[in-house]
Amino acid sequence: MASPLPRWPLVLITEKTHDVAIDMMYARPDNFTGHVIYRHAECFLHPQAEAGLRKAVAAARSFGFRLKIFDAYRSQQAHETLWAVMPDARYVADPVKGSNHTRGVAIDLTLLNSAGQELDMGTPVDTMTPASHHFYAALPAAMLVNRMYLLTIMLEAGFVHHPNEWWHYQLPDAHDFPLISSETFETCLATST
């Protein structure tokens, strides 16, 4: 069971503090919606997910990789915008039930090699087709191996995978965490700058 929220329920993740690359895809228009969804490019996670991220960073480093984050905390309003474009619960959680991103305990990410290039995972992030399913067998073996590297790293760090999205990981008890309101997030955002 999830512990209660601390006073500030989100931790700012930065490239400097966490040794990750960050490219918040919904802060740019070149995402599956075709629009800028976030007015900021900051990356936040619940403290328990942030602790897992630190373990994942160390595990990735042991393989010679670095993590690249595309999305983490997502406000309810932003999630509803995604649902309006893609109302398919296989890929976007029904906003009535709430997204684990809105709980701050889900993260979308990939791996970078030692040259800083993304490993080929077979599809871009947010492809939202069967080819993006974690164990899609029709992909070349090298791409499946890359997905297995990411899976191994994230499982070792205490996360679980989403079967339909090779990039999505979350804490195992994600639904036990409360949704974090936009107002609470705005407070976290204001105190982090």
UniProtKB/TrEMBL annotation:
Active site feature: 165 (proton donor/acceptor)
Top-level taxon of the source organism: Bacteria
Cross-referenced InterPro entries: A_A_dipeptidase, Zn_M74/Hedgehog-like
Keywords: Cell wall biogenesis/degradation, Dipeptidase, Hydrolase, Metal-binding, Metalloprotease, Protease, Zinc
Catalysed reaction, written as an equation: D-alanyl-D-alanine + H2O = 2 D-alanine
Cofactor(s) the record lists: Zn(2+)
Keyword Plastid: no
Binding site for Zn(2+): 101, 108, 168
Cofactor note as given: Binds 1 zinc ion per subunit.
Enzyme Commission (EC) number: 3.4.13.22
Sequence intervals crossing the membrane: none
Site residues, Transition state stabilizer: 74
Task of the protein: Catalyzes hydrolysis of the D-alanyl-D-alanine dipeptide.
Similarity comment: Belongs to the peptidase M15D family.
Protein name (record): D-alanyl-D-alanine dipeptidase
